[in-house]
Amino acid sequence: MVSFIDVLGFRDLLKTRSAAEVYGVVKKLEHFTKPEEDNPPRSIAEIRMQSRAFAYALSDAIIRVRPYDTQYHDGAFFWELYDLLHAQIALINSGVLMRAGVAVGDGYVGLNGEGPIFGPAMVRAFEIESQEAIFPRVVIDEHAIEEHRTDPRLRGEHNTLDYELDVVAGFLRTGEDGTRFIDYLRACRTEFEELSSYFRFLKRHADLIRRGRARTEERRILRKYDWLARYHDGCTAELLMEAVSSTHLENALYEEEGLRVDMKAYIEGLRVLSGRC
Fold first, then answer.
1. Which one of 39, 77, 141, 148 has the lowest number of neighbouring Cβ atoms within 10 Å?
2. What is the mean pLDDT of the chain?
3. Which contiguous run of DSSP H or E holds residue 235?
4. Residue 46's pLDDT is what?
5. What is the pLDDT of residues 2-18, one digit of tens each?
6. Closest CA to 98 of 220, 172, 181
7. Are residue 49 and residue 170 in the same domain, yes or no?
8. Which residue has the higher pLDDT, 208 or 18?
9. Do residues 141 and 206 both lie within one domain?
10. Ramachandran region of residue 4, left (φ > 0), alpha (ψ -120 to 50) or beta?
11. Same domain, residue pair 141 and 37
12. Residue-range definition of the domain harbouring residue 36
């Protein structure tokens, strides 16, 4: 499984930022997309035990490879989406937008996972990132989604098929152009311990869009921010509508996957943040 990740608008950064600032952006991408491992695998036998992501830096891009033909099937597809979700959150909090393509298939990472990396899955992931993602989003290949449904090596071996499909469906959104991408504004709600933290993230997201629009008059770049604004406003409006019509409305407080939600505060916060872009 391969994810090809790029900084959005890197060429424009080269024109408008100092070398030190560009280097800082690239290092943030590398830091937030590379796996954190206390005990990295040292041999092909360890690599084949369970799915572990490897990351390779290439200029302004990161290539992540996650083998899934392993002895223990721990849910490689889900964990890759989960890692990419957290990378998006961290980068947005740092004022950086990323774009990525995710594909499933054959790939080569060397005997000990040290590279070189090549193969059909990498080519496909690059094609998605460069030709299909276009906007600041993580696009998943339709073939990869189908493989997750049919290939048990991509799923957690203790999970039922219906459970896995439901969990992954909760991560994804279908765009206007039919592409499937990580719906990070919705999926990240339960990744924050406090509701106020989620609202601060939404505000940073809206502020990032407005700053980006103010910095450029180039139509090619503005189209990307226009898409991001539609995504932000559309997602927050959907969440607000769902909250207002929710059966939880009668309860002052409820818990959603560990996130304690005061419904009145939640609705008021979404009202303030909807339409900000």
1. 39
2. 84
3. helix 219-244
4. 59
5. 999 988 766 666 666 67
6. 181
7. yes
8. 208
9. no
10. beta
11. yes
12. 2-184
